[in-house]
Amino acid sequence: MIKYKTDVAVIGAGAAGLAAAIEVKKAGLGVLIIERDRELGGITLQCIHNGFGLREFNEELTGPEYAQRFINEINELQIPYKLNTMVIEIKPGTPEKPHKTLFAVNKQEGVIKIETKAVILAMGCREKPRGAINIPGFRPSGIYTAGQAQRFVNMEGWLPGKSYVILGSGDIGMIMARRLTWEGCKVKAVVEILPYVSGLLRNQVQCLEDYDIPLITNYTITKIHGKDRIKGVTISKVDRNFDRVIGTDKFIECDTLLLSVGLIPENELTFNAGAKLSSNNGPVVDNNLETTIDGIFACGNVLQVHDLVDLVTAEAKRSGKYAVEYINNGYGKDVKRSGQIKCVAGENVNYVKPDLINKSDLSKEIVFSFRVRYPDRRILIQFKDKNGVIYKKKKIYVIPSEMIELNLNMEEIGINPECKRIEIEVIPRPEVLIDED
Amino acid sequence: MIYDVIIIGGGISGCCIARTLSKYDSKICLLETQADLASGTTKANSGVVHAGYAAEREYVKRNLCIKGNKMYTQAAEELNFPFKRIGSFVVALEDSQIKTLEDYRKKGTEDGVLGLEIILDQKKILHMEPSLTEEVIGVLHAPSAGIVSPYEMTFALAENAALNGVKFFRNHKVSKIKHSDYTFTVKTKQGEFKGRNIINAAGMYARKISKMVGLDYFDIMPRKGEYILFDRNILNLNKILFPTPTKVSKGILVCPTIHENTFVGPNAQNITDKKDIATTTAGLKEILEGARALVPNIPERSAIRNFAGLRAVPDTYDFIIDNTDVYGFINVAGLLSPGLTSCFAIAEKVEGFLELLGVELKVKEDYNPFRPKPERFDDFSIEELDQKIREDPAWGNIICRCETVTEKEIINAIHSPVGARTVDGVKFRCRPGMGRCQGGFCRPRVIELLSRELNIPYDEVTKRGEDTNFLVGRTKDFILKSMEEGGIEE
Predict the structure, then answer these.
(1) For this structure, is B259 an active site residue?
(2) What residue of B is the nearest CA neighbor of A134?
(3) What number is the ipTM of this complex?
């Protein structure tokens, strides 16, 4: 069995993995990237639309261009990577032997064993399939997730069909609606069960409205037709509980159905290694993006689904920095943790990252990220401990598709170091504050 | 060439008969309408090997089921299909149901069902199956019940039959049968097949085939059953869970699968369209509610697929296994539950008919009852894996991430006897696309491998045969065509 030794092993060479690896290498440590696909870059390679890089480079780039900047840097820094290589197991370290062991396979080397001081998980996410939302009907060919269609069209050069219905108004779905229209295909409708689009507003305008693609909100698919290839779908209006409203059925003919109904962090490896997962399917992490396993960090969509790749990059850089700090300060030493504070999602908050704050880090700036459950206007973001509100911030509007980030120093906002848990909530602003916008 | 036996239908019963007969020095072929075997009632089957206490005593299916159950042990050893005797619970939630269970136990034991016991100790029951509702007051435990993968079992039977000389023809729909001089001529679009004897195992279409030789004495109606499949390692059930049946229905099961998933279903809906395998909103709701009566914390959010299958329900409500008045024509029809359990016993019965019909049943000298277990990435230790990849690098290329299926397993599935020709064929043989992402990442790769291994164009690879294509053309095809036609301004 071929063996490797490194300081940091990065699993995944998408936007997150590449940025994390560069950060580690720049700090002078050894790093090895392991990627299961054929090339570096991950899903950004199939995102040939623009809109990437506005925060990171102050430029508007396509996905492949964005990835290429990092790939170039990887090559300049001579960071080693393995393609077509899949990690099949992560073994955590022990107090006596703090190194972690990865087993991976590829065609050339067989099983490889990698001993590493730290691991950065950057495996990304996957799309929810049809079964996850239990759409009834036949099971013909011609049903794809939006990302799968994107891969076929943008990377393999094939068209999955001619006339489309897209279920779900996630970003990839809307972007594919425009992409397929450019290909001369007909997108009959984008059907969304919620009263509003679930992707970014800019995609609603630039991908649907600019091309007169109908967006049908408050509707969902209640039957798939076609015994061999899909022939159409029945859509029905839904009430507040998402139950079908009788008498609202409409048939739409199509030869292809795309699903853009959500993304789930891909954490089989993480889970099997013994790390705790939180309600968003991402690993539980502390403010250093360290999972519940010593020296194993997570960043990018494997931790939480981001709406902008630039945010993935920023998070990945932080994870790289934290992994370096861990190796330089904590690795192999019996670091006494001074206790942790739990961060809990309160009213209108779906989840919060980090899940835990180390009491030793209260004087440092911490990046909090979270999403709301439903859109709201004129709200207050509040951090509470058991004695009451410790921090509040006004915001004009919030929507689930936009991740909210806050950089806070817990000491400065006056957290009680003895508290065990804080709750983050997004609430309607009390009347006295309403007119302040 | 004149076959001794032509089997019509490549489901579990047709393939089981093919394999049973393959030990004899006879010329046998099997014709299947669909692009692959196990495409009809076999595919969406609960995969439960029943203990045999349930059917009424006047039905032939009762004894065939009890006998068939016992035949699984040897068959699974010889054919290496996944089968586990995990045992079943029939769950009583009310006092009145205990009487039904007691009746099953008494008659079942008398008729040779082994190990039946009534358990009334709730603590013991919940210890044996912690997921079960706390409202349980008693169960009938049938330790001989088991779970099997019906399609993997069908492929195993077919592979072994093919190795022993049975010829398989898929995409061969029978359109007509002529009968003269003790010879049947079976017509398909691809040509004629002549044979001395015919075994009609055409499932939902058994009446149609029977009518082709002038026998019209039974009817088969479709009864739909819907299922929801859940991700693996969510509910790790120890037992197959049945509610206490009513006169109307056997009820909704909650059942582990051989691959550690859980399914709930099926409901029962009499329909008329023999191709209506659509799931319905009401049906999916019905099975979830039914399942919750047994297992309250059904993990609805971990569903990965819903599907429906049809049962071939005969108007006699019993199996139709007849050596008919048309000499040499055997009907094997109406095999709804426990058809899967009974299949080996049914095949044995068919063997007897053939003997009566004068077919010389002489065991071949080179008959090999064994089918090697398909090698799986997941079954290897790290060291074995390293060795395997050195021997064949295709073992090192993981195609399906959810189920960890390698290029090598897919190549093996394509090149096995009666191998996969479609994406579903690969999926049902070695599981790429069966996992939680349902093929999101691996489908293009599986298409690529089928295209390469079968030497067919990429866009001609289908999901499950004719009219189930994945792709309609190259990018830019439509736009260029539209421009030529003047539909789009440059």
Answers:
(1) no
(2) B306
(3) 0.92
